[in-house]
Amino acid sequence: MEPILQLNDIVTSYGRIQALKGISIKVFPGEIVAMIGANGAGKSTTLMAICGILPIDRGEIRFKGRSIQGMPPEKLPPMGLCQVPEGRRIFPRLTVDENLALGAFYRHDTEEIEKDLDTVYGLFPILKDRRRQHGGTLSGGEQQMLAIGRALMSRPQVLLLDEPSLGLAPLIVQKIFDIIDDINKTQGTTILLVEQNANLALQTAQRGYVLETGRIIMEDRAETLIHNPEIRKAYLGE
Ligand code: ATP
Q1: How confident is the model over 29-40, as pLDDT tens digits?
Q2: pLDDT at 236
Q3: Which residue owns the Cα nearest ligand 1 atom 16?
Q4: CATH number of 5-87+158-235: 3.50.50.60, 3.40.50.300, 3.40.630.30, 3.30.479.30?
Q5: Is the pTM of this model over 0.90?
Q6: Hey, whose CA ends up nearest to atom 11 of ligand 1?
Q7: 5, 36, 86, 132 — which has fewest CB within 10 A?
Q8: Does the keyword Transcription regulation feature in the UniProt annotation (predicted)?
Q9: pLDDT at 87 over 80
Q10: What ipTM was reported for this prediction?
Q11: Domain-by-domain residue ranges, the chain?
Q12: How far apart are CA 203 and CA 59, in angstroms?
């Protein structure tokens, strides 16, 4: 099987600081892949490079067999690649409904958009209850749900999730991860997940990559990484 998303030897810099020093990743259709690593390892930078928010110095990014590096970021969701950024970035003064509608702003298939809205409200009933409330009045967990829901409104084939657990209480985090799993299973959405909560990420994913200072130092089945003593010591708090 061909990867749906592939990074070949990506190098990128902030000024003179090289943040990614040759990252190669493959994501196959239907997978959940986790990228774990300490603060500053380059996880968010990798997602921003994929999305075209950050230019790359070297390497190739392929999505569905096509080179996408250098493409304007707004071209990617219509192609089926959508990111949920770190910190959620929902629109606080727009309602839940309006935030979700923006996820589908470039689509014209009104009936299908309605169906997708029903699907999102089915996944996140709490958002349906709050559909006329402003995004800014939602709790942190609800805002994360809204950010994921908004991305789903673009009907992504690949969803990039940046730290969905950030700043949320453990119970809510578990709920969000259950829904991530559900989206993957019921919608067939492929997911690349960046997380500092390595334990949860590796429990949810089938495969994982471990990043350290801009390099991949390990890649394996998530099951194998979870039981690796080095990983347990460095990233799973043992
Ligand atoms: P985090 O969990 O903090 O998001 P991360 O693994 O996602 O960590 P990145 O945010 O990708 O790490 O950062 C990778 C490296 O790039 C770090 O050394 C960081 O200091 C540096 N960096 C990130 N953003 C910038 C920026 N806007 N300007 C300069 N350096 C940056």
Answers
A1: 999 999 999 888
A2: 79
A3: 19
A4: 3.40.50.300
A5: yes
A6: 42
A7: 132
A8: no
A9: no
A10: 0.91
A11: 5-87+158-235
A12: 30
